[in-house]
Amino acid sequence: MRHLFRRILFYILAIWISVTLNFFIPRLAPGNPAEAMLTRLERRGPISPATQKALEAAFGVNTTDSLWLQYGKYLNNLLHGNFGISYIEYPTPVITIIGQNIVWTLILGAVAVIISFALGCLLGVIMAWKRGSFVDTFLAPAMTFLSAIPYFWLALIILYVFGFTLNWFPFSDGYDTSLDVGWNSAFIFSAVYHAILPALTIVLSSIAGWLLVMRNTMITTLSEDYVLMANAKGLTKGRVMFFYAARNAILPNITGFALALGTIVGGQLLTEIVFSYPGIGFSLLQAVQGQDYPLLQAIFLFIALAVLGANFLADLAFVALDPRVRQERSA
């Protein structure tokens, strides 16, 4: 219980540090969002100084409040669930924009990462158990080759071959825009159909990491005394492979899996750009380009919470999977 309390305090401190950095770092960048909007408005005609001052007042830049006073107001708004108004889509609330985009990112990223993790670990176990066989000899260099291809090039190749040349899959948007958005079979099928190529890109680019780490760790684990004892007791190969060796060999991948889940929120920027896929990653790019402080801070906060939450779940998974961790923490 004491260990859990210390970990919770650590995560609270990490969240506060993340929030603080999210507030100060964008404000250290040159320029301000009012100037960015003025540049867009000047294309339509001249802008008066009064209009500029009104925009700066609305966006909270060049204000007479000190930076620390603004920081206090920002923390108070966060505690009340107020993330502010988006600058680039004024006057839409930030939480509305995030709510519209994050669902697409979470569904695509979570499904792709889970598939990649499960396949990579399973193939890694099989390759280690049958090391030196054709499966091991073929898959190891093949997966290494795939992991060496730059991620955006792999996305472009898949898009060109399966989307443009063969025309098997759509290569833009997250669904058929002629359909009504809702929980109906036509829309769900369209969303799944449009997500196949982005998901395939994520799986192919990440599966090699899970596979190779699992294979190498599994080979080391197979030489441990408790695995040799399980074989000597005459247990079935499947039970020894999965319940004795793989259960302990997967522990290093658990941390990586937690980090992968945590970075889903903002880690698919290139995927969403290449495939014109709606999501939070593309919103992050627009927020950076438009110096949209509220949207930028809210997205970073969601990313930080996702990473910290995933790491906390990884801590709990370690306790459940490894008896040695439970004994050390109870001591």
What's the helix and strand layout?
Elements (H helix, E strand, L loop, with lengths): L1 H27 L4 H10 L6 H11 L7 H13 L14 H36 L4 H15 L2 H15 L19 H38 L2 H8 L4 H13 L1 H12 L6 H6 L5 H10 L3 H29 L1 H8 L1
Helix pairs in contact: 1-14, 2-3, 5-8, 5-11, 5-14, 6-8, 7-8, 8-10, 9-10, 11-14, 13-14, 14-15
Let me know the number of strands: 0
Number of contiguous helices? 15
CATH superfamily of the domain at 103-289: MetI-like
> Could you say which overall geometry the principal axes of the C-alpha atoms support?
globular
Helix and strand sequence: HHHHHHHHHHHHHHH
CATH architectural category of the domain at 103-289 = Orthogonal Bundle
Strand content: under 5%
Mean pLDDT: 75
Helix share, percent: over 70%
Top-tier CATH class of the domain at 103-289? Mainly Alpha
CATH topology of the domain at 103-289: MetI-like fold
Name the structural class. Answer: mainly alpha
Reported for the largest beta sheet, the result is: none
Radius of gyration over all CA atoms, rounded = 25 Å
> Span between N and C termini?
11 Å
